[in-house]
């Protein structure tokens, strides 16, 4: 039995509230069950030095977890003086996932930074961050069009992300922490609304995952992303 009696192919309850940060050009609070992530998109009229005079913009991301996002207090990484390897890996994943659906030339020589801050964690924080970051990014680009800075939005596609895993030999969609920590295999899928693959991360514990099991997880992921992109569209109007 899954937590809260969910079916194996069911997402957690998903909510996306937009416009939660009055100062950011784009923002949303995404809630995937008990995982809550605040996503803001900030537009800057400059690019990294290595991109100057290229005629292209840049999309990047930063990710972090608040100290009491989990059951015990985690030390702020700023206090430690460095980011963990996990944090660096996740924010790079978010950045390259978003860049896959942005025309950087149409963005012009400006940078959009996605800040994804985990308020509450119960598994799937990176996938929730990617799904919410796309909403924040889209709203920021729409703002650029509304302000007359751009003629058209540089966002040319839609992406969302979801986790899947094998728990007790059963393929399950959108794992919560209690499932994730005992899963024989866990995977994160970043997919486009038309079924394109942006990135897949999959890891087996103790023994290799059968190819047929991966096919089952991929099928679940496609179903989950189809539902997520519908929720995204409703959120941005």
TrEMBL record:
It catalyses: tRNA(n+1) + phosphate = tRNA(n) + a ribonucleoside 5'-diphosphate. Keywords: Nucleotidyltransferase, RNA-binding, rRNA processing, Transferase, tRNA processing, tRNA-binding. It is an enzyme of class 2 (transferase). The keyword Kinase does not apply. Its EC number is 2.7.7.56. NCBIfam families: RNasePH. HAMAP family: RNase_PH (MF_00564). This is Ribonuclease PH. It comes from Hyphobacterium marinum.
